[in-house]
Amino acid sequence: MSVYKSIESSTSWAALLARQPENLREALTADRVHHRLVSTGGGLSYSYAAMDLDEPTINLLAVAAAELDLLSQYKEVASGSVMNIGEKRMVLHHLLRGQPFGPVIKDGRDYGAFYHSEKDRAGDFARKIRSGALRGSTGKRFERVVQIGIGGSDLGPRALYLALEQWARERNLLTVRASFISNVDPDDANAILAGVDPESTLFILVSKSGTTQETLANEALVKSRLAQTPGIDPSKHLVAVTSETSPLARNPAYLDSFYIDDYIGGRYSATSAVGGVILSITLGPEAFSAILAGAAEADLAAKEPDIRRNAALLDALLGIFERDVLGRPCVAVLPYSQALSRFPAHLQQLDMESNGKRVDRNGKPSALPTGPAVLGEPGTNGQHSFYQLLHQGTDVIPLQFIGFRQNQTTYDPLFEGSSARRKLNANLTAQIVAFAKGKDDSNPGKQFPGGRPSTLIFGEELDPAALGALLAHYENKVMFQGFAWNINSFDQEGVQLGKVLTGKVLAAGGPGDPVLSAYAGLLGAL
Amino acid sequence: MSVYKSIESSTSWAALLARQPENLREALTADRVHHRLVSTGGGLSYSYAAMDLDEPTINLLAVAAAELDLLSQYKEVASGSVMNIGEKRMVLHHLLRGQPFGPVIKDGRDYGAFYHSEKDRAGDFARKIRSGALRGSTGKRFERVVQIGIGGSDLGPRALYLALEQWARERNLLTVRASFISNVDPDDANAILAGVDPESTLFILVSKSGTTQETLANEALVKSRLAQTPGIDPSKHLVAVTSETSPLARNPAYLDSFYIDDYIGGRYSATSAVGGVILSITLGPEAFSAILAGAAEADLAAKEPDIRRNAALLDALLGIFERDVLGRPCVAVLPYSQALSRFPAHLQQLDMESNGKRVDRNGKPSALPTGPAVLGEPGTNGQHSFYQLLHQGTDVIPLQFIGFRQNQTTYDPLFEGSSARRKLNANLTAQIVAFAKGKDDSNPGKQFPGGRPSTLIFGEELDPAALGALLAHYENKVMFQGFAWNINSFDQEGVQLGKVLTGKVLAAGGPGDPVLSAYAGLLGAL
């Protein structure tokens, strides 16, 4: 078993703490742009030329990575060790798309084979929906699929669907479109239902435990509406994605059920049936398989021992340098791709829920500040919004850019001598350099300090394989950061107290607590 | 004229710096919930019971506010002083919805009257669209309106439209629906165009200067597509919102044009024609007028000298206490209303673009850290995502909750004994208390430290007046914070360098800079 300790206790930490940010105005050269490049799999590359740390600093990070056994800990995860130590669970999401360290078989159960068979079942089901062989209870083809889920059952699948909706449309693959209901606010479900025809709509209920209050409340609202539509049999319009031990499993209220298990955490479930059913139906099973193949490539790339050739590990360590040596508490994710409009929201969950922890794996207060606050919107939109602060604010926020050489859609007429695609990537190019190098001006208000570091993940096109690799890159980066901070990235104890207090407010007889009662009174929740 | 200085130079600053965060576990009582309430106008109230500062600290903030003449500076803004000092412009967005300090008349021009007449023209135009009196060039009624704009021409109008889309649908007011194109990524425009019928679609081009590259490129793409649709006259499907001196003004390429001027900053333009045309068309002119009436109420409420009775001023000062005394660099905006799904993105621009400044109004480095990083997503979704970090992360992020007693939509069946609305507000109640008070546990991983401060803005229902007041509350909060930091909240010099470098990349002959060339090469932008 690996030694679990924080990077703060590594022999190189004192030397790391003494490092200053590199002066990017001088350090960022064309040569460095060509050399600080790492493949992440899925046709993507990771560029860290515009990060403000020098080679000796990277060497110190490499020493720490080796000392902390970060790669061994990855192997432990993907080999089925109980790495979610608080909840005493294995962490098996890598097996959803490959077997980076071989199969995991325990008590005769081959976990990878189980996930694979569920993927195949979802693919077969999707083909029947897409061909029209399986139809709604009034005989109409399904043209819309609505996922009912929250958190990991919503953000990841939604981000991936939006990332490939136009890609699929351009290829005439988008025979069924997706919508999502997540919020317990009934205005969410009512808004979605106002835009769909129940007869041609399939609902996917997603809850691993089968007990998520928001999701069950939304299911009840949807079922109640379906029941009001003449001729509709709700059980023919609902499928479940859940665990085999949940009350939703093998339940005649659903047309079919697809399974995950306790070893697939919500925020790591996008490549499981949680994402697989809706993505196979809307984009086609082949596209979903390509997402998994891209993710599997990134998982293999994350095995590389040399941190300069392991994008996920390097990204993790550079992030810790920014967070804990340079004291920068936020990260901005800035995709130059409208299709990735909700990808930052998924990463926000992935990162903040995994590493927003103040206690280490030994139950001691974390030696260092852990997970950063994550924000982000697509460029160029962000350029006309919050980039002002990124360029000229008092704090430095490290940036994570994402870009692609090609569009997903083909229509792109020239305007003022260039395509919109070229304009988009010219903007991305310009921003990286502007942040790093700044610009002097005699007018202090027009002075750009520069020295604002960024990374760039880029590839040819945002296709399923690239998307899968992008997703897995971030999953692995967050995992490595958790190891380096010696925290449990796989539980989420911080969600429990709110659930308990919500139950108190809703209890018969009222909350029985004066402050809860006072707020509930203001909000009409008694 | 007011004395321009930073709160750091106020006589109470040393005493403020010595203040510790209040212990919310003890300080947050039911009594405080009932007493720390301020009206913001529009039927909304601002609760600061769960903020971690005591009455003596608030008294110190009040001393600073008086010393810095914060209210006088507001008066200067709304009375037409040149408060955007870098660009030497007045800042007149308050006049879009009222005259909190009387009319502004200069050189015979009554600015408020001008804005009001443009609002009336937009209302008349909207009525013709909504009634079908004005139709597309092939005779079809307009059923869709697509705004083409970016930054302030996109985020504010989009957030407001989404905030009231269901409200309008429930009242049978939503005869025309809205979409938005903003990103220069052609996948954005192509995706929107794939979902609309050109014959029944009106496009609104929004650019104050008439030279915004992304917006003009998107217009060119849209026009090129329209020109391919047999029988369509593009000039009958396009209107412009711009300034009277722009190339788009009084241009026969547009069906009509509506005007703002240089004194309406992009991020403060949602209540101008920038938001007014699309909101009047989709929600009706009466709803837009109600938004303005709510905003005007909040503007009047912001004149109150007693900081305990001025929600915007108090919110501003409490935020500065968190930012600069307690050293908390982020803020999370958490609306418990799905309709406010994009409101945090608007606030992100409003706040970060206004106050992400490192130089004060005298051209000196800011004495204090200025504008925070802003993030946010609707609750309950965020609870299942990044709230983990908010509860148990190593950093404290002050929270700004928003909630309403009633739904916008009416369908809300009971499930497990309560409506979804009650569940939503029970969750909101529970979160405020969980963040403030935490919970002890012998298992360190299940320990909640508490002491995580929050404010709450709440009202009966998210209707147009409440939305207008909410918007203006934040505009005024951000304005007061800028005054207190002695920065210019009304310019955005930080966007310029990127534009210049983008132009270099796109220039004939290439960027002429090796680093730009290197990145542009990676991204295929040469």
Description:
The structure is a homodimer of 526-residue chains. The first copy, chain A, is of the alpha/beta class and 526 residues long. Chain A has 3 domains: 7-91 and 302-491, Rossmann fold; 105-290, Rossmann fold (3-Layer(aba) Sandwich), CATH 3.40.50; 496-526, no CATH class. The first copy, chain A, is 42% helix and 12% strand. Chain A has 18 helices and 13 strands. Chain A has helices at 13-17, 24-27, 30-35, 55-67, 70-78, 111-131, 155-170, 186-194, 213-227, 273-283, 285-301, 311-325, 343-355, 387-392, 420-437, 464-485, 496-506, 514-522; strands at residues 37-41, 44-47, 105-106, 109-110, 144-148, 177-181, 201-206, 238-243, 256-260, 330-335, 373-375, 399-404, 454-459. A 6-stranded mixed β-sheet of chain A has the order 1-2-13-12-10-11, with helices on both faces. A 5-stranded parallel β-sheet of chain A has the order 6-5-7-8-9, with helices on both faces. The longest helix of chain A is centred in the C-terminal third of the chain and has 22 residues, at 464-485. The mean pLDDT of chain A is 97.
Question: Could you name the key traits of this structure?
Answer:
42% helix; 13 strands; 18 helices; globular; 526 residues; Rossmann fold; five-stranded parallel sheet; homodimer
